[in-house]
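OP here, attaching both records as promised.
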Amino acid sequence: MADTLTPDGAKTAKGGASWIEGGSHRPLTLDDPARAYIVRRGHYDVFATEGGRRHHLFRSETGDLLCGVAPVGGFALVAVGSLDSAAEPVGLDAAADATGIERWVAGLSQAATEPSTDRPKRAVAPGSVTLADGER
């Protein structure tokens, strides 16, 4: 049996599990504490968002857990999948048993305790700056 896509972007995998296709065009909003996802393919970068700006926190790999967290102080969490990524919605009972929860807690803890690695922000006009090979 082949995987099939539903109109909402969920994919029913072999065995009937429903996966949500990822990618930069399809971020997962992690704002509901009653929802969780297991990364089934690829990876997801987890960001704290405030006023539309994203602050990278950590990366979740295949098998890791993504948990919903109630927004606090104007911040919310969003997970953006890699090309060809997918996540499976799971109940909280399954999330409690997932081995990926350790990496979720470690990622949040590390992001909360380490100094920000965000680069200084500067506005530039398109085409006004040329970067050398390997420069970001």
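Record two, same layout:
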Amino acid sequence: MQQYENSILDTKIKQYLEDLAQETNSVRQSEKFKNYLDLLTRFWNYSYRNQLLILAQKETATRVAGYRAWCALGRQVNAGEKAIKILAPFKKKLTSSETTGNEEEETRVYFHSVSVFDISQTSGAPLLDASPVINSSFHESTFLRLIEFCELQKIKVSFEKLGLHNAYGYSAGGKIIIGEDQSIDMKTCTLIHEIAHELLHYSLPYSSLPTRAKEIQAESVCYVVTRAIGLNSKSSVYLAPLGFPSKDLTYFFEAISKTAKIILNFLYPQQYEKSICF
């Protein structure tokens, strides 16, 4: 039964990606892609598969939890609401006869489907706003944390006066140059964009992507991260048809999700560690 449910969830993911890959209208395809990025902003600490599952079932979702979790928060699921199915891990101990025949016991992690509901499907006590206070000090500290991230990744960051061709900044494989005549917000956006290039595009498999596809990936990561941290950037993403089959679109999207998560995990380690997201 559980394998059947997981198969249904896999089908939902494949169908969503197939629909996007086959969309020939560039405006509609861009709108669907932006919906995906907006959902990543809200659910960045969820797995890629669960992000797509939430998107395929309720793309307007902003915060999900199980029935009991909502009750613990003083809210009740509204009558008649349809659950959103996502995947959650569970551990199972296997005896020696089930594995290699050795006497040692082995614990494996499996996944099964669970039901969650969006906050819009519930009623009750208002929730506390856990969003960070956004001010100039916050922006400055975020920028310094990103510099620290680069240092840990062995990426050198320098600031120079740049010409029109590289007005904001660029990356050069282990080195990022940022235009010095920018606001702290613009420097932060530029740095996130170039970090995405550094993490993705100087090694296989993404180093072989066309330049335009690389730029879409980097700007998508920037879009997700800046919105997740509350930075009002001018980042915008337009996805013209790339001609990718759905299986390649999967890797393309997953790279964006994982790269944004790497950066946000570093900026908000406590939020990630406390999450129960799969």
